[in-house]
Amino acid sequence: MTKEQERARARRRYEEHQKTEKPPVGDATRDKQVFGVILAVILVLAAVIIVPQFFGRDDTPTPAAASTTPATTPATAATGANGLLEGQKLAAGCTKPPPAQTAPKQQTAVPAKAAAAGKTFVATVKTTCGDMVFELDGAAAPQTVASFLNLAKTGFWAPSPCHRVTTEGIYVLQCGDPTGTGQGGPGYTFGIENAPKDGTYPTGALAMARTQDPNSNGGQFFITYKETQLPTDGGGYTIFGKVTKGLDIVDKIAANKALPPTPTDGTPVSPISILSVSVTEKKA
């Protein structure tokens, strides 16, 4: 084979190879690809940064049960000349509540459960709407009852507004925060005891309020004025007693619902405050 023939064969192989190759990217095409990448990056950044500004972000932890968590929204209405919040009115048989505490007494040590273990107590709770009586079950919830005894003895709740009422789906009156904001506590916390496995809280149950943290029980508690079903996620809520007298007072407060804008969950329209709590052991 001559050199001319070899060169011709090499040329043909090169031409055949070129037919199967993708054409090189031109400047215009390359610019379009680069622009497309930049545009994609801009759109991603917009989705991450700009869109939440318009639609808002919800990275607030969801409470285990909105009905019983201490973290409630305090009333924003101004206090009137009569000492009531705007929109509040006294229910029949109630007197004007005293101002909430601004600096409730704080403690650091959790009371020893031995003070209540295996015992039953009777608590008389004086309120601006009359007396309520609780029976406290130290056998079922010794730590919780020991804490209740301690807070009653030290005057933690004197005075203390009941800052939350719920009237739809769940039926509770929540009390025990001397500041009335839903954020106050005694300075110590403890865990869950005696929570119903099925999440059913009977009428008149006395139970502890808490946040999502199962070890956040403190001084806040709630009363169920109708049977209420609550989530069991996180361990439920400690039942430590029951109301034996004065549940009609809770019914009266609940009947007037909560202040706007959420009349089914918030600060009661008809205020009620704890004035004092005294506890005695119930003898067999």
Automatic annotation (TrEMBL):
Q: Which Gene3D superfamilies match?
A: Cyclophilin-like (2.40.100.10)
TM annotation in the entry: 34-55
Q: What is its EC number?
A: 5.2.1.8
**Family label:** Belongs to the cyclophilin-type PPIase family.
Q: Which InterPro entries does this UniProt record tie to the protein?
A: Cyclophilin-like_dom_sf, Cyclophilin-type_PPIase_dom, Cyclophilin_A-like
Please give the name of this protein.
Peptidyl-prolyl cis-trans isomerase
Q: Which domain of life is it from?
A: Bacteria
The parts of the chain that form a coiled coil are none
Single GO MF annotation:
peptidyl-prolyl cis-trans isomerase activity
Chain ranges of the PPIase cyclophilin-type domain: 130-279
Q: Which UniProt keywords apply?
A: Isomerase, Membrane, Rotamase, Transmembrane, Transmembrane helix
Q: Please list where the region (Disordered) is annotated.
A: 1-28
Cited function: PPIases accelerate the folding of proteins. It catalyzes the cis-trans isomerization of proline imidic peptide bonds in oligopeptides.
Which Pfam families does the UniProt record give?
A: Pro_isomerase
- Give the catalytic activity: [protein]-peptidylproline (omega=180) = [protein]-peptidylproline (omega=0)
